[in-house]
Automatic annotation (TrEMBL):
Organism the protein comes from: Raineyella fluvialis
Transmembrane regions listed in the UniProt entry: none
Domain Globin, residue spans: 1-141
Catalytic activity: 2 nitric oxide + NADH + 2 O2 = 2 nitrate + NAD(+) + H(+); 2 nitric oxide + NADPH + 2 O2 = 2 nitrate + NADP(+) + H(+)
Classification via CDD domains: flavohem_like_fad_nad_binding
Protein name: nitric oxide dioxygenase
Pfam families linked: FAD_binding_6 (PF00970), Globin (PF00042), NAD_binding_1 (PF00175)
Domain FAD-binding FR-type as annotated: residue spans: 151-254
Needed co-factor(s): heme b
EC number annotated for this UniProt entry: 1.14.12.17
């Protein structure tokens, strides 16, 4: 809980700090990577730095956390913290790095705010930083402790690589050492460390799709403008060994029997496959409505696998939208106004941000409770920081 001394200072400065975040963050990262270039080797995504997305997410989340503390003095934004902690844990982030971020972030804040960064203001924001850091550190410790091994990454050998619709490589792995294999909850992801031509390693997250026990399988959509997926598509071969993290992620199957709506677009099918597979394994009788949007039926990744899982569930059905028309149920972008969604249903969404925003607002404006709508974004979660 924020102290009585800091509360009025945060209330008076939160808006200014939030507004200055876009200016503070480039300076923060310049300082941090200047002092610690090794953090770009195996920890931070270089592309997120270039696009400026992750910087906004990290620093912006601290301003958002401060505003939350002002509005809800007795609680923390648990789901926001949990999402960040899972991402951090998938990268093997250690507690002793928190002072690094503190030092460079606050150096940048002081430089940007100038005389406005009085000792009282700096002290109040330091309190916010460490409240958030300690909440994250404690969640991350629990996540690490829940794993059957103490290695953030372990080596896995590629056993299969095949292409599927829409330029997606489906890759299977088996353990390449005797590290205990952590069981994955359906919907979780792993980080993979990929060596780059200039001699560093770049991590990216990929959702685990159904695979035999003790193995891993991921589906990697090629981003021609990206750094890592072209390397995975071009360089990764059967027999190669890559480091994979233990599984993390909080978009998992909740223990309930209420109807479930799974809305995906493009490569956003991956968590849905994991959830559908888990329902099949449990012999679930739940009503499941699967909604998928894609450019065309040929682009739809792992389409046959998804259709088969739906067919295997007694109370599941599927509806498709293809931008280019053709053999789907609808032409154009997903529009759920014609889909009758039971009011008690949980809605799980995954796809590009514009898709998520559009479908979420359709669901909410139809009167569906927002706390029953869950989503996964395949990138830094700016939505979480900025809201609608
Ligand atoms: P990046 O290098 O990250 O680039 C992304 C974008 O940044 C590019 O399109 C480009 O616009 C810009 N960019 C990059 N470099 C430059 C540059 N030098 N100059 C200018 N702009 C640049 N993906 C899947 O395919 N399947 C999954 O199952 C999956 N699951 C995920 C689960 C989670 C929880 C998360 C967070 C992500 C998931 N992703 C998944 C996305 C994946 O992690 C990668 O973000 C994605 O594959 C792109 O990686 P990349 O390295 O090719 O692109
Ligand atoms: C990701 C917040 C500390 C490294 C993130 C994200 C947020 C965040 C909001 C984006 C989550 C998402 O992708 O949805 C914070 C806060 C911190 C903190 C509030 C301190 C209180 C740290 C530290 C490090 C770190 C100490 C390491 C030095 C990363 C990395 C990512 C990330 C590598 C993944 C994104 C990328 O690769 O660009 N953090 N973080 N964070 N954080 Fe942190």
């Amino acid at each position: 809980m924020l102290s009585d001394t800091s509360r009025p200072i945060i209330a008076a400065t939160a808006a200014v700090v939030a507004e200055r975040i876009p200016f503070i963050t480039p300076e923060f990262y310049k300082r941090m990577f200047g002092a610690r270039p090794d953090l770009l080797d195996g920890m931070f995504s270089r592309s997120n730095q270039i696009t400026g997305e992750q910087p906004k997410a990290l620093a912006g989340s601290i301003a958002a956390f401060a505003i939350w503390l002002l509005q809800h003095p007795d609680s923390y934004p648990e789901s926001v913290l949990s999402r960040i902690a899972h991402k951090h844990a998938s990268l093997g982030l250690k507690e002793d790095e928190y002072p690094t971020v503190y030092e460079h972030l606050f150096g940048a804040i002081a430089a940007d705010l100038g005389d406005a960064a009085t000792p009282e203001v700096v002290e109040a924001w330091t309190e916010v930083y460490w409240l958030m850091a300690h909440a994250l550190i404690s969640m991350e410790k629990n996540l690490y402790a829940s794993q059957p091994n103490d290695k953030p990454f372990s080596p896995w050998r590629v056993t299969k690589k095949e292409m599927t619709g829409g330029n997606v490589a489906v890759i299977s792995f088996e353990p390449a050492d005797d590290t205990a294999v952590a069981p994955a909850r359906p919907g979780q992801y792993v980080s993979i460390e990929v060596p780059t031509p200039d001699g560093i390693r770049q991590p990216r997250q990929f959702t685990l799709i159904p695979a035999p026990a003790g193995t891993r399988r991921i589906a990697v959509k090629l981003d021609p403008n990206g750094e890592v997926t072209p390397l995975i598509h071009e360089k990764l071969r059967v027999g190669d060994v890559y480091d994979l993290s233990n599984p993390y992620g909080d978009l998992v199957l909740r223990d309930t029997q209420v109807p479930l709506v799974l809305a995906s677009a493009g490569i956003g099918v991956t968590p849905m496959l994991a959830l559908l597979h888990a329902l099949c394994e449990r012999g679930s009788q739940r009503e499941v409505i699967v909604l998928h949007a894609d450019r065309s039926s040929a682009e739809w990744p792992l389409a046959d696998e998804m259709k088969q899982l739906v067919a295997d569930l007694p109370n599941a059905r599927i509806e498709t939208w293809f931008e280019e028309g053709g053999d789907g149920d609808h032409e154009g972008y997903m529009d759920i106004s014609g889909v009758s969604i039971p009011w008690e249903a949980n809605v799980v969404m995954c796809g590009p941000l514009p898709f998520l925003k559009a479908v979420r607002s359709q669901v909410i404006s139809s009167g569906h409770p927002s706390e029953q709508v869950f989503y996964e974004i395949f990138g830094p979660d700016l939505w979480l920081v900025q809201g609608e």
